[in-house]
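<tokenise_the_fold>
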Amino acid sequence: MGSGRIESFRDLEAWKESRVLRQTAYRLARRLPKEERSLQEQIKRSAVSVTANIAEGYGRFHYQENIQFCRQSRGSACELLDHTITMLDEGLVSAAEYKEFEGQVERVLKLLNGYIRMLTNSKKNSKSRLTNNQ
């Protein structure tokens, strides 16, 4: 992988950082009291959705499908941040823990934005090549 080639969704920086985010979210969710089981499950679902949508989009044939799954991943990351805000509001996570988590979410969003931008440009370039070759 030293060549920087992307051969799998596991090579994508957005997926790698999302995986770290998911691991952190799971650690936070495990600390929740039993009466917060619903919130715990929502946190787990949205955290898994971030990485899963990147992987599923990567497996799609068309750029636009991949872009759409990356947008869904962004939505799940924002949902995850909202769940963490709920934890902060209810005193279930410290302000410092929340701030660190918020930084992780922001990194994931920036990487996803960059990946979406790259996919959009690749889509435009592939259409341009098709038009010029006809």
